[in-house]
Design a protein that fits this description.
Blueprint: E1 2-8, E2 26-29, E3 34-37, H1 46-59, E4 66-73, H2 74-87, H3 93-98, E5 106-107, H4 109-122, E6 129-136, E7 142-147, E8 152-156, E9 161-165, E10 168-173, E11 176-181, E12 183-188, E13 199-204, E14 210-215, E15 243-251, H5 257-273, E16 277-279
Helix pairs in contact: 4-5
Length: 280
């Protein structure tokens, strides 16, 4: 589940003349902002609904009367909102207030015009913040990341928490940092060590400092060869890295085109039609 948005077209106006036999059962649905037919009326059967849909198609070429649509995962939306926070929401007040954090709401055409202007300004930002990435040294695969200097806790377990910040991988216990490293060896305990299940030994490569109760680090799940996320035993396809290091990479506005390009398209449709962007 994520955030979706659409802008209705103006192909069918509210005062459109509806022909028989649909006229007694057709109405303007204010919630969906489109012409609809009362499917619950006794005289409206499947054949009439299908004929009504076919008549609508002669008046409007757009599927479901949507001139523009878009959809994003909540993770993608959250990443964009976090980027605005890093740069400063006072520079992008309309984006900060109009991009919802729940499903629902509308953005009118006037606000859509301001959003377009703010996106153009956002696209000129060279560096939003530094990204701190925990990387599998053998595959160069990104495992975890945090943005800015605050750090991010990724794993929360009964024995310890683990995450990544500008100083590298860290493990905390009772609120205290018990291990931190920018480059380390990660050795999970064997299955027969029931007392250590879910844990690993971690050792800083430079200093030799060792911690014996780190949560196990694993890569992001990838589909199995058959396309499924889990195999017949319910296992995810994840790699457990042996050597891990920290990388710092600048984050730019170009990384958010997955969001801004779609949003610009929605704004253009809203400005063209005068209809709001509807969030759902």
């Amino acid at each position: 589940m994520g955030l979706d948005a659409f802008v209705r077209c103006n192909c069918i106006p509210r005062d459109v003349v509806v022909p028989e036999p649909f006229r007694p059962y057709a109405h303007w649905d204010d919630y969906d902002d489109k012409l609809a037919i009362d499917c619950l009326a006794p005289a409206v059967d499947h054949a009439m609904v299908q004929a009504f849909v076919e008549w609508l198609a002669t008046k409007c070429p757009h599927e479901d009367r949507d001139l523009a649509t878009a959809g994003w995962s909540w993770g993608g939306v959250g990443a964009f909102r976090a980027a605005l926070q890093h740069v400063g929401t006072d520079r992008f007040p309309t984006l900060a207030t109009e991009i919802p954090d729940t499903n629902g709401g509308r953005t009118d055409a006037a606000a859509a015009r301001r959003i377009q202007e703010e996106i153009r300004a956002f696209e000129q930002v060279k560096i939003i913040c530094d990204r701190y990435l925990l990387v599998d040294s053998d595959t160069q695969e990104e495992i975890w990341e945090s943005s800015g200097s605050a750090g991010r806790v990724i794993l929360v377990t009964p024995s310890a928490n683990a995450g990544v910040d500008q100083n590298g991988y860290f493990v905390t216990r009772d609120g205290q940092v018990v291990f931190q490293s920018r480059r380390f060896v990660h050795i999970p305990y064997p299955a027969w060590r029931i007392d250590k299940r879910g844990h690993a030994l971690v050792r800083d490569i430079g200093t030799g400092v060792t911690y014996r109760n780190s949560p196990i680090i694993q890569s992001h799940p990838k589909p199995w060869p058959n396309g499924r996320l889990q195999d017949t035993k319910g296992r995810f396809n994840q790699r457990t890295p042996r050597y891990v290091h920290l990388e710092r990479r600048p984050q730019s506005a170009a990384e958010f085109t997955y969001f801004t390009d779609d949003l610009k398209r929605l704004c253009s449709a809203a400005i063209e039609t005068g209809n709001p962007i509807q969030w759902c």
